[in-house]
Amino acid sequence: MVEQLDLERLRGRVVVIKFGGHAMVNQELKQTFAQDVVTLRRAGLLPVVVHGGGPQISAMLERLDLDVHFEAGLRVTTPEVMDVVRMVLTGRVQRELVGLINAHGPFAVGLSGEDAHTMTAVRRTAWVNGEPVDIGLVGEVVDVNPQTVRALLEQDRVPVVSPVARGADGQVYNINADLAAAALAVALDAEKLVMLTDVEGLYANWPHSTELVRRITADEIEKLLPELASGMLPKMDGCLRAVRAGVRSAHILDGRVPNATLRGMTSGEAPGTTVVPDQGSRPE
Ligand SMILES: Nc1ncnc2c1ncn2[C@@H]1O[C@H](COP(=O)(O)OP(=O)(O)O)[C@@H](O)[C@H]1O
Ligand SMILES: CC(=O)N[C@@H](CCC(=O)OP(=O)(O)O)C(=O)O
């Protein structure tokens, strides 16, 4: 594996790594994720972590006897649910990842998209069968101010960002972590956006087959989006937005495989699904 790594080319470049809640399967995987992030930082890359936590939020809601309900891959978020989302993401999942990374040195600093107006959102609806559906306090990121994240990178830190954002009116919104990661990757002019999840990548014709799509262009994703379901929908939407807005490549990787993060930093085709801009859409 080591000889395929492309760390030299990526020195000084931002790589945004989205660590999905479904990939946080056990302690060992979380520890190797933290180790990989530190390896990237020590090799001179500028990793930025955006974490998920969907299953962790759902588990807490169930403990509190609150509804767990998704529409088009997005959680229906009442004000009560929003409190739990914020608490679990910023108070629990983010803290745990910060702690695991900092076991290697004083690298990680956790922040929420709310902090210093890093992410500003507006309320959004979900689209189900062509109809808009009210999903409560779910936001779409409309502005990213990357100054705080950049300042942390300049201080050799690893920002660990929770997908919660503030509206211009002060309302706090729940943001899908894939879309938060994509928005941040664009604002930071990232070289790569890597999403770690609990499948090998995008499967063609899911759930009827697990035939892996190795490489896909933005145009191809656009055509595919109406057919996609559940968690893969915001993931591919995020990849599409990222590569269309200048991120060189986006990758969906199996976070259950140890060292998946490092394996995403290859010169050739990474494992999983690689999303590339449309041919001719950007000068090399
Ligand atoms: N075409 C597809 N290919 C692969 N997985 C898919 C597809 N469509 C839906 N999925 C689902 O998306 C899930 C990953 O998204 P999600 O559950 O949101 O994970 P994460 O917490 O990593 O963001 C997979 O476990 C799978 O059930
Ligand atoms: C609006 C919305 O759906 N927000 C997500 C935020 C966490 C997330 O995206 O976590 P994963 O990456 O682990 O799925 C949620 O409430 O589950």
Automatic annotation (TrEMBL):
A Pfam match: AA_kinase
Record localization: Cytoplasm
Chief place where the protein resides: cytoplasm
InterPro entries reported in the protein's UniProt record: AceGlu_kinase-like_sf, AcgluKinase_fam, ArgB, Asp/Glu/Uridylate_kinase, Glu/AcGlu_kinase
GO biological process, one term: L-arginine biosynthetic process via ornithine
One GO MF term attached to the UniProt entry: ATP binding
Segments for region (Disordered): 263-284
Reaction(s) the record says it catalyses: N-acetyl-L-glutamate + ATP = N-acetyl-L-glutamyl 5-phosphate + ADP
Spans through the membrane: none
Gene3D superfamilies associated with the record: Acetylglutamate kinase-like
Source taxon at top rank: Bacteria
Pathway entry: Amino-acid biosynthesis; L-arginine biosynthesis; N(2)-acetyl-L-ornithine from L-glutamate: step 2/4
Alphabetical UniProt keywords: Amino-acid biosynthesis, Arginine biosynthesis, ATP-binding, Cytoplasm, Kinase, Nucleotide-binding, Transferase
Known function: Catalyzes the ATP-dependent phosphorylation of N-acetyl-L-glutamate.
Name the UniProt record assigns to this protein: Acetylglutamate kinase
Gene: argB
